[in-house]
Structure to design on (154 residues):
């Protein structure tokens, strides 16, 4: 695939690929490594420490490859809150995998129902309800809920 293909894609398509498809692949694959880490006996704290090291390395690489302007205090605090909430969620998932021997195939679809909270908060906090088709969004939400119930019963 050449970079010319990317030049021909619209910003909306690129946003969907870069912000939706790639994270779905990365998050999905990362869950396998979380389970492997738990199976190898890594504690939740240790898992988060080594995950944090990897996040820092990727952050440095992205800062060098794609430099941006300086970070404002509000941007820094929002990033810190994101990291804290992400770490708490990831830590809880690893505790479930390690301590309670949770089944990843059942757990991952449930914790990925975080989509529902993100959608709701996006609609309310950023007024995105003005930019989406609420009927399709509602139908998708119902599908996610039904899927989560079915997976939890599997």
């Amino acid at each position: 695939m050449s970079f010319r293909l990317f030049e021909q894609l619209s910003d909306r398509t690129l946003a969907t690929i870069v912000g939706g498809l790639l994270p779905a692949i990365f998050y999905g694959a990362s869950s396998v490594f979380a389970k492997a880490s738990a199976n190898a006996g890594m504690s939740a704290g240790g898992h988060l420490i080594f995950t944090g090291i990897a996040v820092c390395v990727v952050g440095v690489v992205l800062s060098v490859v794609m430099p941006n302007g300086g970070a404002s205090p509000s941007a820094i605090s929002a990033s810190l809150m994101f990291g804290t909430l992400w770490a708490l969620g990831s830590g809880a998932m690893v505790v479930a995998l390690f301590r309670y021997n949770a089944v990843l195939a059942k757990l991952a679809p449930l914790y990925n129902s975080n989509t529902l909270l993100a959608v709701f908060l996006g609609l309310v906090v950023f007024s995105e309800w003005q930019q989406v088709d609420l009927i399709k969004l509602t139908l998708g939400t119902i599908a996610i809920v039904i899927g989560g119930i079915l997976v939890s019963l599997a």
User: Anything to note?
Assistant: The chain has a mean pLDDT of 90. The first helix runs from residue 3 to 8. The helical segments are 3-8, 11-39, 44-65, 73-99, 104-111, 114-125, 134-153. The two ends are 39 Å apart (CA to CA).
